[in-house]
Write a structure and sequence with these properties.
Helix 12 packs antiparallel against helix 13 and helix 14 packs parallel to helix 16. The longest helix has 41 residues. Helix 4 links the parallel strand 3 and strand 4. Helix content is 61%, strand content 12%. It has 4 domains: 126 residues, Response regulator (Rossmann fold), CATH 3.40.50; 136 residues, Alpha-Beta Plaits (2-Layer Sandwich); 104 residues; 95 residues, Arc Repressor Mutant, subunit A, CATH 1.10.10.60. The protein is an alpha/beta fold.
Length: 513
């Protein structure tokens, strides 16, 4: 049934419209009534009518003004029908400009209003169908994007698409809720999005069919998140007829964090699935309690060490040892995949820190092995990890070799741009992930001067320009080019130029004259 709200300042008119018109026959129910436009505005968002039937002559605010105000506060707004005791063309013309769907004269004719209600009903139903279809398409696109993220795909183009479709900003705070049936008899398609409060974020299904929700959690309390999780757990348990566990990740920002948030929920699932009979579990609780999460930090620590050290000949043995430990527990394949997902993220982060492109490795791995979520046995998963680590080790070695020259170039470029600020070799070395003594040696080798000599020369050259072109005081020029001590600036200027800054300034002033 469609909902209609009636607004008229005459109580007898309200009663007559409510009782004399066969609303149910036309497919409507009266959801609310109001004696003024002010009252109608106050309650309309609570009732959300599909149709607003309003008198045109109302106290304080007219029916036409009410229509304009409703359009401002409701999206989408209802359809509108005007009632009037006057056959006034000016009223009708204004009503048409407001795009009302009907203009009825009092007293209302039964046949006329029923015909109009049927006409408006068809319009509303078409709009609802169109909105539903648009929402379905949008949800499918969002679900596809989230699945691409959680399976390790990432690019700037993909992130821009997610920001647009999901209305995300780089600082948008997100959280992941994932539901899974505890029963081992459940198949791949464990559930759907029923019970997930879609108004809080974006419902999705992961590659194994588990339903989840990416929550836009900025400003949401932990109580509100838990209430949503309780609703999900109750609905999914009733629907599936088995206990359901709901896992809640920590909080991160931006679309790029979606994979990490999803992996956190898998980590919780991997630890809890054997010894719990449903419930709500938090990733942060496990971390805070110091429980041993049997994940990448444990099984793949040695593998990561060998990859970063470039010791390719030892990687395969370490991978075999890690999987021997995993299968001995044994971990459910979901938990093992979560470990591998964590390993992927760690390797991608290491590659990105060395100015590499993680997609170069990950896209090649997906082409060869398919998505991680589709690997259903330990053997294939071990082959994938072995190949991934060997490829990552080779790429990191390549980046290290290329970056040594590139890094010193970037350091020099950074100094050229930032020399006016406070710069210290130790800080720059830390920023570029280098040993400060080694960076000093590379700097001298590349420029022929020590870091401090190069920095002072840049500052003095900039000071010469200011001395020629401006009337600034010597002390102000010293500060502008990066010298915090004026006497030190004067000494260095003399040593470099052969005269004091004031003599240099006057000499160039005379030349200009």
């Amino acid at each position: 049934m469609l909902k209609v709200m009636i607004v008229d300042d005459e109580p007898w008119v309200l009663e007559g419209l409510r009782t004399m018109v066969d609303w149910e026959k036309s497919g409507y129910e009266v959801c609310a009534e109001a004696l003024s436009a002010v009252e109608a505005l106050r309650i309309i968002q609570e009732h959300k009518p599909d149709l607003l039937l309003t008198d045109i002559n109302l106290p304080v605010m007219s029916g036409l003004e009410l229509i304009a105000a409703v359009k401002e506060v409701m999206d989408p707004p209802p359809r509108f029908v005007i009632l009037s005791g006057y056959d006034d063309f000016n009223y009708a013309r204004t009503a048409l400009r407001q795009k009302v769907d009907g203009y009825l004269l009092k007293p209302v004719d039964d046949e006329e209003i029923e015909a109009l209600l049927l006409k408006v009903k068809a319009i509303i139903q078409n709009e609802i169908a169109s909105r539903d279809e648009g929402r379905k398409k949008h949800n499918l696109l969002v679900n596809n994007l989230i699945n691409r993220f959680i399976q390790g795909e990432w690019s700037e183009e993909l992130e821009r698409a997610a920001d647009k479709l999901m209305e995300l900003q780089p600082g948008t705070e997100l959280q992941c809720i994932l539901a899974a049936a505890v029963s081992s008899t459940m198949g791949q398609n464990e559930g759907d999005g029923e019970g997930f409060p879609g108004e809080l974020g974006y419902v999705f299904q992961d590659p194994t069919g588990r339903p989840g929700l990416i929550v836009r959690c900025a400003g949401m309390s932990s109580e509100a998140i838990e209430a949503a999780a309780v609703q999900v757990q109750k609905t999914q348990s009733e629907k599936l007829g088995v206990p359901v566990a709901v896992m809640i990740s920590g909080r991160r920002t931006g679309a790029r964090s979606i994979r990490e948030l999803y992996t956190q929920t898998l980590e919780v699932w991997g630890v809890k699935y054997r010894r719990e009979k449903g419930g709500i579990f938090y990733y942060n609780d496990l971390r805070n309690m110091g429980q041993a999460l049997e994940f990448a930090e444990g099984h793949f620590t040695r593998v990561l060490e060998k990859v970063k050290a470039g010791e390719s000949e030892q990687i395969q043995n370490c991978v075999r040892e890690a999987f021997a430990a995993i299968t001995a527990m044994p971990l459910k394949i979901d938990a093992a995949r979560a470990e591998v997902a964590h390993l992927e993220m760690t390797l991608c982060r290491s590659i990105a820190e060395m100015q590499g492109d993680p997609d170069r490795i990950m896209n090649a791995m997906r082409m060869e092995y398919g998505p991680l979520g589709g690997m259903e046995d330990y053997y294939r998963l071990s082959l994938y990890v072995d190949r991934l680590c060997l490829q990552a080790a080779a790429y990191l070695a390549e980046l290290r070799a290329g970056n040594e020259g590139n890094t010193i170039y970037n350091v020099i470029q950074y100094v050229d741009l930032e020399f006016r600020n406070k710069l210290q070799l130790q800080d720059i070395a830390r920023q570029f992930h280098m040993n400060s003594a080694y960076l000093g040696q590379l700097f001298r080798k590349e420029t022929g001067r020590s870091f401090s000599d190069y920095l002072n020369e840049k500052r003095i050259e900039a000071a010469k320009g200011l001395l020629k072109r401006t009337q600034l005081k010597i002390s102000d020029i010293a500060l502008q080019v990066g010298f915090s001590n004026t006497d030190y600036f004067i000494d260095k200027f003399k040593a470099r130029v052969g005269s004091s800054p004031s003599v240099y300034k006057n000499a160039n002033k005379n030349k200009q004259l």
